[in-house]
Sequence to fold (242 residues):
Amino acid sequence: MIYLFLIIASFLTAIISGLFSMAGGLVLIGVYAFFLSVPATMVLHGVTQTFSNGSRVWIYRAHIKWNVLLPYSIAAVAVLIVFWFISFVPTMGLLFLLIGSLPIVALLLPKSLHLDVQKPHIAMICGLVVTTAQMLSGVAGPLLDVFYVNSRLTRQEILGTKAMTQTLGHIIKVSYYGVLLAATEIPIWLFPAVIIAALLGNVIAVKFVEKMTDTQFRMAGRYLIFLIGVVFLTKGGYELWR
Fold:
């Protein structure tokens, strides 16, 4: 029953991600963390999100802004190298605190920072910050979104470009935590099951994206991730208290 619940969660959160390019992965890693260890959570979430985001890469491939990806990728690989040296794994309580605080921090950052990901040096800063957050908390969608708020990209360009950067981040995360995971902790059949569920969720979400305006797309997700952040902060505080 637990595994069935994880599969259903993968499907529903893929729809959320497909609609807003945020929040779905945040919810999903919280659900996984309720039932699995930190390394298992990171690996299963990373695999699911790699295929979920990868499907959006394919769907919106014509809208991807490739000039953003080179500086971002250089920074992301640099973060992976650092983590290989420090070999850090967060506790479950810290994981939930990070998951819960990221969306709130992202919402509170002043817009006056003008973090436009289309600028190469900002794209590199984005790669450093977002990949570090992914390695520590498993997700970084809310932070990643901050770098797109001041861009002049359309919702399709945001969906495609963010999906590409997130896919890279999840591959990096899996390559790091996969080494730490006991092979018997997750049944092999669960991986294709959550992948298929995530892909189906993305296909369904596409039908709704075209009905949204760019303004609705940018605003709706911000309220959603704030509520999610409060829930996970509460869970993180409980885990550290007990």
About this structure: The radius of gyration is 17 Å.
